[in-house]
Specification:
With 250 residues, the chain is of the alpha/beta class. The chain has 10 helices and 8 strands. Helices cover 42% and strands 15% of the residues. Helix 9 runs parallel beside helix 10.
């Protein structure tokens, strides 16, 4: 990513008003979702809508990421072929595998060449959302130089290993720690899973603080009202990093 990404605001790709209004909440990035939040009957129309949004709406002050469908689905490659030519900042890949990253990197090189873009313009953000993805996170994030961040999708991950999500998040502590450390070692950004209760501002702040302490560089938002609180937490973290307190070496 071009800058520190504190907040990623997810919006469905089949909602024109949300696509238009998303920058108003001042997220560092918006993630336009063509996968989970778009029903199968609307995949094709949403794809065209998102293409037109990237062409005609003003996203000049925000990073634009498009969450495509899994490459293993009938929609994934169509998403890439339609969306990549209109130059999103990045594509987010659900159910990401090493071979998916490599396939996409090669596809994007061809599209960039055809569009007269510098190679590597479009970045990749794998979603860590399965047991296999978690155990392969190091290989996935190092599969291409296009990978500039990873996103932990704890909702899908917990479902994959049969756990129930809680507000405390104890059930994802291992996953958070593993993904954060892998990304830090690779020198890329790492974005935490969203806090699902959009009406619990205190819980959101606590969960964001926890993610920050575990080394995450940003957090997803599923409602525009969550963005400001997330930005505040990570702003404070950046200020502390810029002016570290003296400490005793042991």
């Amino acid at each position: 990513m071009e800058k520190n990404t504190r907040s990623m605001y997810f919006v469905p790709g089949n909602e024109p008003k949300m696509l238009q209004d998303a920058p108003v909440f001042d997220p560092d990035a918006i993630v336009i979702d063509l996968a989970r939040r778009v029903p199968a009957t609307e995949k094709d129309s949403a794809r065209i809508l998102v293409k037109e949004a990237l062409q005609f709406l003003d996203y000049s002050n925000v990073e634009v990421i498009v969450r495509i469908n899994p490459l293993s689905s009938e929609y994934g490659l169509k998403d890439v072929e339609t969306i990549a030519p209109v130059k999103p900042n990045a594509l987010m890949i659900p159910k990401a595998r090493v071979e998916d990253i490599q396939t996409l990197a090669n596809m994007l090189s061809g599209i960039e060449q055809a569009q007269g873009l510098e190679e590597g313009t479009i970045k990749l953000i794998p979603m860590i959302d399965s047991i296999l993805g978690l155990e392969s996170v190091h290989s996935i994030i190092n599969a291409s130089s296009r990978v500039t961040a990873a996103f932990l999708n704890a909702e899908d991950l917990a479902a994959d290993y049969g756990s129930k999500r809680t507000k405390e998040g104890d059930e994802i502590l291992y996953a958070r720690s593993k993904v954060s450390m892998a990304c830090r070692a690779a020198g890329i950004e790492v974005i935490d899973t969203p806090y699902m209760d959009i009406n619990d501002s205190e819980g959101l702040e606590m969960d964001t603080e926890k993610a920050n302490l575990l080394g995450f560089t940003g957090k997803a938002a599923i409602d525009g009202r969550q963005v400001e609180a997330i930005n505040i937490v990570f702003d404070a973290s950046l200020r502390q990093a810029a002016f570290p307190q003296a400490h005793t070496h042991i």
